[in-house]
Amino acid sequence: MTMAVDAMGGDYAPNAPVEAVCQAATSFSDTRFVLIGDESQILAAVKGNLPNNVTLKHTDVVIEGDDEPVRAVRRKPESSLVLAAKMVADGEADVMVSAGNTGAIMAAGMLVIGRLPSVDRPALAPVLPTFDGRGVLLLDAGATMDASAENLVTYAYMATEYAKHVLDIENPRVGLLNVGTEDTKGNAVVKQTFSLLTQSRLNFVGNVEAREMMAGSVADVVVCDGFVGNVVLKLAEGIGLGLFSGIKDTLTSSLMTRIAGGLIRGKLRGFRDRYDWAEHGGAPFLGVAGGLIKAHGSSNARAWYMALSQGRKFIANDVLTKLSAAMEERK
């Protein structure tokens, strides 16, 4: 198995991806890692020698966060992100991982790697932390802003296969994000999607409100369009950051609270880890004809390592073949 890693994407590149790759290379000796980016910067970030199963592919071209995605992919074919996608497209790598420009990753997936048969629009599928600790697979989280009912049903089928084979959920419960649980709620697209999912072979549990989704006890997969999903994703991240910041401020506000904080430090660390997005790895672009994992732009080495582990499991469990088979069964 070979993984192509965009070493120049993300807020902490190349240090975070390089550190994570070196750690992953030790953990997964049967996997070859290709770090793509500025060789001098990558070597400067290495703490010691590179493991034997890590190689470098040099380029000093980078797609920046404010670049227009499609134009950047076309005008910067030698960028670290596009070169990673080309490796997947050419069969030189099984999966690519990047924490770079989300739109550019999506464009590279569509223009360079291509789509699976019967998939019109790929979807970004992150796992959101939930109050019960299980997590919920949300899609789409930003790839397609105006999705049709057919797109949403396709997402549900792909997410079911991904949840089975990567998240180890035997019979994933699929919910449709809506403003109410009643069958008649929602706009025209959501109502049509509800009807189609009701007739599908999926384990469809009906409409799900956002508060139920975060509880985690109602559905394992929640489907929505990319506009709504991206708002939900960023709201959840913002609430999490604000909550932990507030707890920290409270526990350091006086001598008494500092003592109390010290007594429950272990419990608080476990509580924090349960809702830490870094522990959930990256988000796959489901529907692309190759492994494509998007790590969070602010990923540290731990988050990068989890994203690499996720990409490895994606390939090891032959998820692409299972996604294609699920799409064929829908016909």
From TrEMBL:
Pathway listed: Lipid metabolism; phospholipid metabolism
GO CC annotation: cytoplasm
Catalyzed chemical reaction(s): a fatty acyl-[ACP] + phosphate = an acyl phosphate + holo-[ACP]
Enzyme Commission (EC) number: 2.3.1.274
Coiled-coil ranges per UniProt: none
Tagged with keyword Transferase: yes
GO molecular function: phosphate:acyl-[acyl carrier protein] acyltransferase activity
GO biological process assignments: fatty acid biosynthetic process; phospholipid biosynthetic process
Keywords, alphabetical: Acyltransferase, Cytoplasm, Lipid biosynthesis, Lipid metabolism, Phospholipid biosynthesis, Phospholipid metabolism, Transferase
A Pfam family annotated for this UniProt entry: FA_synthesis
InterPro entries: FA_synthesis (IPR003664), Phospholipid_synth_PlsX-like (IPR012281)
Subcellular location: Cytoplasm
UniProt xrefs under PANTHER family: FATTY ACID/PHOSPHOLIPID SYNTHESIS PROTEIN PLSX, PHOSPHATE ACYLTRANSFERASE
Similarity section: Belongs to the PlsX family.
Assembly mode: Homodimer. Probably interacts with PlsY.
Function statement: Catalyzes the reversible formation of acyl-phosphate (acyl-PO(4)) from acyl-[acyl-carrier-protein] (acyl-ACP). This enzyme utilizes acyl-ACP as fatty acyl donor, but not acyl-CoA.
Protein name: Phosphate acyltransferase
The species this protein was found in: Alicyclobacillus acidoterrestris (strain ATCC 49025 / DSM 3922 / CIP 106132 / NCIMB 13137 / GD3B)
